[in-house]
Structure formats: structure tokens, C-alpha cells
């Protein structure tokens, strides 16, 4: 009997936790939306994931674009570094600004 009370207590605590975070309300709303859907989707689980904002399976093209973006960011950073070095090198050969004004 004590085992059942402990389990009931844990279950009640978990239910209060879900209620507090409005998980039950959100799930209910999504399930009601599925119920009201005139044409039921082939995959109810995908419908739930989409409505809850879960990530969809990655499209291979998206993954390629992410890789390309990462490469472009790295190239951009490298270009900025080269630009800084070249500007510093160029500054060695240019006369200071004050001398140009005096002439």
C-alpha cells in the first residue's frame, strides 16, 4: 500500500509540474487543432512536432548551405585579418598625416 501512495504522490507532483509549465494546456491545444483539422495529416506525429515548433528533419540542401556558410565565414575572417596586416604594412610606407598637411 505504501508503494502505491509513493507512486501516486510522484505522479501528482509530476502532473502539477506539467500544469505549472503549461505543458498540458499546450498539448491540449495542439491535439484539439489536430482534431479540428478537416483533412487529417498522414503523420499525426509530424503534425504535432510542427505545431509545437520542433525541428523538422534536415533537408540535405540545408546542411550543404550551412557548411557553405561556415566556410564563407572562415574565409571572411581570414580576409579581414589579411586586410589588417596589409593596412599595417601600407602605413609603414605612407608619410604620417601631419607631414602631408604641412607640405
TrEMBL record:
Q: Report keywords, A-Z.
A: Nucleus
Output the CDD domains linked to this UniProt entry: ZIP_MycBP-like
Q: Which Gene3D superfamilies does the UniProt entry name for this protein? A: 6.10.250.1060
Question: Where is it found, in Gene Ontology cellular component terms?
Answer: nucleus
Q: Where in the cell is it found?
A: Nucleus
- Per its UniProt entry, which superkingdom is the organism in? Eukaryota
Q: GO MF terms on file?
A: transcription coactivator activity
What family is it from?
A: Belongs to the AMY1 family.
Q: What PANTHER family does UniProt report for this protein, alphabetically?
A: ASSOCIATE OF C-MYC AMY-1, C-MYC-BINDING PROTEIN
- Quote the protein name from its UniProt record: c-Myc-binding protein
Q: Per the UniProt entry, what species is this protein from, by scientific name?
A: Papio anubis
**Organism classification:** Eukaryota, Metazoa, Chordata, Craniata, Vertebrata
